[in-house]
Amino acid sequence: MSPLWLLSLIVPLISCVPAPSLFLLGDSLPSFKELLTRPSGRPLTISVEGNVGAGKSTLLNYFKQHSQADIFLEPLEIWQNLNGTNFLDLTYSDAKRWGMTFESLVLLTMAEEHIANKRPDTELSDWKPLKVMERSVHSARACFIENLAPVMTPGERAVLDSWYSLLTTNMDMEVDLVIYLRTSPQVALARVQGRSRDEEMQIPEQFFTNMHQLHEDWLIHRNSSAQVTSPRVLVINADEDISVLTRTYSKLAKMIVNMVTP
Q1: What is the distance between the alpha carbons of residues 89 and 198, in angstroms, rounded to a whole number?
Q2: 74, 113, 134, 200: which is the annotated catalytic residue?
Q3: What is the rounded CA–CA span in Å between residue 40 and residue 153?
Q4: Residue 156 catalytic?
Q5: What is the pLDDT of residue 194?
Q6: Which of 53, 86, 135, 217 makes an SS bond possible with 188, Cβ 3.0 to 4.6 Å?
């Protein structure tokens, strides 16, 4: 099985920029055999993190090409239409009124993705040993809830903190590796403007700056005000041109899938 130090050697050759200080050289991701004995039954879990517009879905599309990987996208269809209510749009329109409600929904739906695809007790033929998630409960707490904290009441923040603590204390919500698609706020904003999604057209420029700093504090500086633990982090310079990133993503997805292939 390929250890993480191989990633630190190979990935720069495919235009990936890791943060060396965040790498445990010689450490390794769990093998397929080790996953079979993991008490919670959780597969090898990777979360793809980054600002809005960082290109997470582009990377996830390369993991989709491998049958060993189970892909979990952000449940936008629920956030945009829960019994006829578009909580995502309401939050962008009036964060003070709807922020706490929306983030409660985010924690719920992301938790459902975290506990999905557990290893079955008997038949393993259909089980996928790799789970790749678009964001996680951890980025919800460290970045998105933290970003909304100034417009929430202390009571609202306490409720969300309690939910996060309950989920992460009593269930296996851990991730084995975070792939951080690191973009400048300017590049993220330009990409969002280019794809013209209705809800995102309301996002102010300052949002991208705030989110960038919150991701940096959590994953790079490790001084998040939310005090969310940082797992292993692989940092990719996602400001690169898409032609470079597609080569990077294709090779990275294949490399990680091979790590958990029995």
Answers
A1: 9
A2: 134
A3: 35
A4: no
A5: 85
A6: 53
Residue 40 Cα to chain centre, angstroms:
20
Say yes or no to pLDDT of 73 above 80.
yes
Structure tokens at 223: 């001084």
The CATH number of the domain covering residues in 4-259: 3.40.50.300
Model confidence at 10: pLDDT above 70: no
> Could you tell me the residue ranges of all domains in the chain?
4-259
State mean pLDDT over 243-250: 91
- Compute the C-alpha angle 101/103/105, nearest 5°: 75
Residue 242 is which amino acid?
A: I
Show the tokens assigned to 87.
């909580």
Cα(54)–Cα(220) distance, integer angstroms:
16
Summary count for the chain: helices (H), strands (E):
12, 5
Q: What is the mean pLDDT of residues 236-244?
A: 91
CA distance 21 to 23: 6
Q: What is the pLDDT of residues 92-134, one digit of tens each?
A: 999 999 999 999 999 999 999 999 999 998 888 889 999 999 9
Q: Give strand ranges (E) for 110-242.
A: 130-134, 177-182, 233-237
Amino acid at 139: S
Which residue, chain included where needed, has tokens 């996680």? 136
At 14, the pLDDT band (50, 70, 90 cuts) reads: very low
| Structure tokens that stand for 82 in this block | 């829960």
Signed CA dihedral, 224, 79, 166, 40: sign only: negative
79 close to 105: Cβ distance less than 8 angstroms: yes
